[in-house]
UniProtKB/TrEMBL annotation:
Gene3D superfamilies: 3.30.70.100
MF GO annotations: metal ion binding
Top-level taxon: Bacteria
Protein name per the record: Heavy-metal-associated domain-containing protein
InterPro entries listed in its UniProt record: HMA_dom (IPR006121), HMA_dom_sf (IPR036163)
Domain HMA, chain residue ranges per copy: 1-64
Length: 67
């Protein structure tokens, strides 16, 4: 499980955009988004953190691995 802090998540559309962006790279990835905290958790056997950050950034959100 990888966790990311993402800026700008505010609604269900944001959740869908992020989920679809990650699953475009790995259709089997499990994506959980917590809107209030801006936390995104990704469970993927194929994706590295840099790939997830890039996919989220391509949707217009600032993302970084959670500390």
């Amino acid at each position: 499980m990888q966790a990311f802090d993402v800026q700008g998540i505010s609604c269900g559309h944001c959740v869908r955009s992020i989920t679809q962006a990650v699953q475009a790279l790995d259709p089997q990835a499990q994506v959980r988004v917590d809107i209030p905290s801006g936390r995104v958790e990704v469970d993927s056997q194929r994706l590295e953190a840099t790939q997830v950050v890039a996919a989220i950034a391509a949707e217009g959100y600032e993302a970084r691995p959670a500390a």
